[in-house]
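fyi for ur records
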Amino acid sequence: MDPILFQVLRSALVEATEEMTLSLKRSAYSTNIKTRADFSCAFFDRQLRTVAQASGQPVHLGSLSHFVPSVIRAYGAENLGPGDAILANDPYLGGVHLNDITLISPVYLDTSSSLLGYVANLAHHVDVGGGAPGSIGAFREVFQEGIIITPVKLVSNGKIVSDIFRLILAQIRSKRETAGDFRAQIAANNTGARRIAALAERYGVATLNTYIDELLAYTARRARADLAQLPHGVYTAEGVVDNDGYTRDPVRLVVKVTIDDNGVLFDFTGSDAQRRAPVNSTYSQTFAAPAYVLKCLIDPDIPVNDGFYSLVRMIAPAGTVTNCISPAPVVGGWETQTRLTDIICKALSQAIPERVPAGTKAMMAQVAFGGVDPRDGDLYAYYEATAGGYGGRATRDGPDAVQTHGQNTENAPIEETESNYPIRLTRYELVNDSDGAGKFRGGLGLRRDYLFPDHEASFTILSDRDRWGPHGLFGGKAGHVAQYVLIRDGQEFPLGSKTTLQLQPGDIISFRTCGGGGYGPPLERDPQLVLRDVREAKVSPERARTEYGVVIDTTNWVVDEEASTKLRAQ
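which gave:
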């Protein structure tokens, strides 16, 4: 095995998927894909093993490793030829929620050669039909959430199958954007297929396959060695999703993490039974949580492929909110999945406190709205997931207003949003005083106010954290809760975290996410850091006094050392 060629091929395979992301992002129509980058790309070999993946969304990549093999086995590899591509989003075939649609294309060296593998990309579409614009909402069964696509050939011999394309678009509100995004997915796969084929042509199919085998084995060896360094033991934690969208009953989530000579086992036994409400996670969604956590705990240089995924061991009993069965609704499964990640970190804080954060936003914080665009009379739909506070850590504060854990999407700029949709964003700012107090404070939440100046619209909130903020660790306090508010005629009306409502012209929805939890006792925070936060208007002088025991002289903008010492002593 030539070590130089090994590194060349290792990097070239990843770069093929990275070039797929560039093609998809630059070709897409919707803000959610072209700007927020809510998609992921990967390459699988002919044995359906994950070989390479781009630096996309960890939640997608973990689930793709399950979904792509399931789709190919269900459709039949023998039914695919050069220039073909199949589309799927079926959550009960190994998929996730319906908005996340995957396109898979076989890769051949040429039309007469044998199969090299498959390229795939998963993209979150702004609308897939169903009961509300954006296809998110408090639905009772999966059939209300939008079109369910079992594996179907969208591209045949290099050409879009027009009957299938029209059938899918007929179910969807945002037809122009969706059609453009599908074509962008096709372009991305074409790009990846060309790059993989070029590698096989240059180095030979046999050589490429040999080095792929070694790459997966190499990854498994390195990952197993790193995981063996974790302290052995059994670590447990519990948490909740605040409500299920229909009742006020919290959704109980339980994890037991066992670290032993066999590696790490994640057991979600004890979590609540699935509900007729939008809080159910599929097996693939849930799998992405432990996969993400383990990736964070090993050397960042270790590749992420089947050699790594084969080490992720998980128990998620069928029929629960961590592994639901049909026809349970799944649109809010990512809310549950990302909360599971937070709870895993809470469990591991008993073993490796210096390596995990306090509670984070740990929700997708999804926004969707739509109606008739008064500018042209066409239907439109918009979707985004909103940032929030990250948890404080052992040596530093949590970042303000970021996507947390397996989310890696970007925020949608005001300018682009207002240019493409008939709304105005009147406020886009940090939520002051939303941090969980601690020696290292949690990050601040984010506020976005959506004004609908001249038309009626349907607005959906699919989020959480409005009852309990993210947990603190080791004496740190919980982050401030999220708030969802309708502002009509100057009056504020609180909204639930999972609701769809009809807006009148002039209405504003104020979406205010939670702050992250604090790490360590607040009275141990450096007073100069508190002063900095007050001067930056992140923490008010009153909160500095009551939570941190620090008195700020706001005339001279200095810490009153004597008064602070007395206050902290009290």
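The first helix runs from residue 3 to 27. thats all i got for now
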